[in-house]
Amino acid sequence: MKTTYDYIVVGGGSAGCVLAARLSENPQAEVLLIEAGKRDSNPYIHIPAGFAKMTTGPLTWGLETVPQRHARDRVIPMAQGKVLGGGSSINAQVFTRGHPTDYDRWASSEGCPGWSFAEIQRYFLRAEGNSVLSGDWHGTDGPLSVSNLPSPHPLSLRFVQACQEYGMPYNPDFNRAEQAGASIYQTTSRSGQRCSTARGYLKPVLSRPNLTLRTSAEVRRLIVKSGRVTGIELADVTYRAEAEVLLCAGGLGSARLLMLSGIGPADHLRDVGVNVVHDLPGVGSALQDHFVIDIICQLKDTETLNRYDKPHWMAWAGLQWALFGTGPATSNVAEGGAFWRSSQTTDVPDLQFHFLPGVGAEAGVTGLSSGVGATLNAYFVRPLSRGSLRLRSADPQDKPLLDPNYLAEPGDVAGSIDAVEVSREIMRQPAFTDVMKAEVEPGAKATSRADLEDYVRQNGRTGYHPVGTCRMGSDDMAVVSPDLRLRGLDGLRVCDSSVMPSIVGSNTNAPTVMIAERAADLVRGNRIPA
Q1: Any idea what the CATH number is for the domain that residue 69 is in?
Q2: Are residues 217 and 78 in the same domain?
Q3: Is the dihedral of CA 172, 177, 180, 186 positive or negative?
C-alpha cells in the first residue's frame, strides 16, 4: 500500500476538495485527500431542499456548545458536516462573499498583508461559475456553479417586496460593491442540483492517477519530527508527506486536531493529558460565529414548504425533481435574502436576513403546533464576541468543548435586538397583509427592547459559521502567518475557515473556497503581484 505522497490534505470539506483538485493539476504531484466522513452519496445532499433534513444526524459531527453564559446557560447544537464536501454538502447553498471592506480590514488592521479585497478578488472569480451574472465582480467558468433559484416560492417574492416597502432597495447582486438591499439569494447549484466542492471540484478529477481519496478515515494526530510536520497517523496506517501537510478540517476540526497532536496552548494540553510538542497559545482561541435569531409568523391558509413534510407530497416533489429537475425540491429553503444597517452603522450593512417559506426547517428552530407559517432569521454580521475551543480530554473520540461566547459584547446584543426589530417590521409590511395571521415568536408580549433582549438570549442559535480558531496574523497569538504556514513548525499550512482573523459579514462558504484557492497558489509558489 502506498503511504508516501507529496501533499496530504486533511479534511475533504469545502476547502479540502478545492486544494486536492488544484494541487493534483500538476501530474507530477502525488496528492492524498483524507476525509473522516463518508462519500457524498446520500440523496438529500444533491437535492437543494435536502438542507432541511441535514442540520442534524449522521452527516454531521453531532457537536454542541458548552452552556452559554450570556444566552441563559443554554447548550446550543453546532451542525458541522462530516461527509465528503463538508459544510458545502449540507448547507443552505447561499452564495454570498461578504463586503470588500471585510478583507481590507484583514489586510490593514488585522495583520494579514496580501488579503485585501483587491488582492484576493481574483480567487473568488476563479472559483465561480455563475450562470447569470458576469463582469468585473463575477466569474463564469469556475468549478463552483452558482445560479438563480428556478422557481422561488411566492412567499419569498413577497418578502423581497416587503423589504422594499420597509425602505430597502432591490439588489439583484449581493456580491458587488453595494451589498445593501433585498432579493432572492443566488445559490451554489446548477440545473436543480447542489454544487458542493465535492461535486464541483473533486468529482470531475477523481480519475487522475496522482490523486488518491480515502473516506471514512479519521486522522488521530499529526506527526512532528525535528520541528517539521512530516505526516499523519490514522488508526490503521501512517502516511508521510514529502512536501506539505495541508490541514483543512474546518473552523472547529483543524484546531482540535492540532491540539490532539500536542500543538497548542501548553498549559491546557498538559491539563488534559496531551504531550506538548509545540506551545502555540493561539490555537483554539478567537472562536467566532454568527448568532442567529428567528422570528416565526403564523399565516392564513396558504401553501408553504411544510406541505412537503407529508409523505405523499414529499414523494411527489422528489419525483418531479428526479424526472425534470424542477419543483419545490429545487428550493434551498432559505430563499429570500437581505442586508441592511443596524442603529450602529451608516456605511456598510451589518445585518443579514434569510427568509424561509416554512417553519421548523432547521434543528432547534420553533415550528407550529397547527396551521402554516414562515420564518425570518437574522444576525449581526460582525460580532465582537470571541470564545474558544478546548479539548475535553486526550481521547480523539471525545467531542471538544466549544464556547463561542455568544453575546459577550454589548454591541452584539444591541445589534441582535436591532435585527429582530427590523425583521418584525419587514413582516408587518403590506406585502404580507393578506396572508399574515399573527407573529408567534417573539409575539405580541414582546413590546420593548428589554423584552427583545430576553428573547434574543433565550432563542438565539448558531449561524453554522465558526471561524478564527487558527487565525492568521502577525501577532503572538496568531496561529498561522499570512501565507497560512503554522507558526514555529515547518511542513504544515492551515487552509480553511479557521484562519479567518475575523468573521466576514455574510455566509462563510464562498470565502472558505476563496481561501483554499489562494492556498493552492501559495503552496505552488505563486504570489500575488504587488
Answers
A1: 3.50.50.60
A2: yes
A3: positive
Whether 354 is catalytic is no
- 114, 103 in Cβ contact below 8 A? no
313 in the same domain as 279: no
User: What's the alpha-carbon Rg for the chain, to the nearest Å?
Assistant: 22
Cell of 282: 493561539
Q: State the Cα–Cα distance between residues 127 and 146, nearest whole angstrom.
A: 10
Mean pLDDT value across the chain: 94
SS3 402: strand
Question: What is the torsion angle, in degrees rounded to the nearest 10, for the CA atoms of residue 8, residue 11, residue 15 and residue 21?
Answer: 50
DSSP letter string, 412-458? HHHHHHHHHHHHHHHHTSGGGTTTEEEEEES-TT--SHHHHHHHHHH
| Whether residue 154 sits in one domain with residue 196 | no
Note whether residue 401 is domain-resident: no
**Domain span at 87:** 1-144+187-287+388-395+466-530
Q: Do the domain assignments include residue 402?
A: no
CA gap 397, 80 in Å, rounded: 16
Residue 290's nearest CA partner among 500, 477, 493 is 500
**428 has pLDDT over 70:** yes
pLDDT of residue 323: 64
Is residue 426 packed enough to be buried (19+ CB in 10 Å), middle (13-18) or exposed (0-12)? Answer: buried
First-residue to last-residue Cα distance in the chain? 44
Percent of the chain with pLDDT over 90: 88
Euclidean distance between CA atoms 120 and 14, whole angstroms: 18
Residue 311 CB burial class (10 angstroms; 0-12, 13-18, ≥19) = exposed
d(CA 284, CA 251): 10
Q: What is the pLDDT of residues 127-186, one digit of tens each?
A: 999 999 999 999 999 999 999 999 999 999 999 999 999 999 999 999 999 999 999 999
- Pair 249, 355 in one domain: no
**Where do runs of H (alpha helix) occur along 197-310?**
197, 250-260, 266-271
Are 267 and 351 within one domain? no
Chain centroid to CA 213: how far? 23
Cell triple for residue 253?
A: 476540526
H runs (alpha helix) in 212-249: none
Q: How far apart are CA 213 and CA 96, in angstroms?
A: 29
30 plus 126 within the same structural domain: yes
Residue 85 lies in a domain: yes
Same domain, yes or no: 452 and 470: no
pLDDT at 303: 86
CA-to-CA separations, 86 to 21, 223, 428, in angstroms, rounded: 15, 24, 37
449/515 same-domain check: no
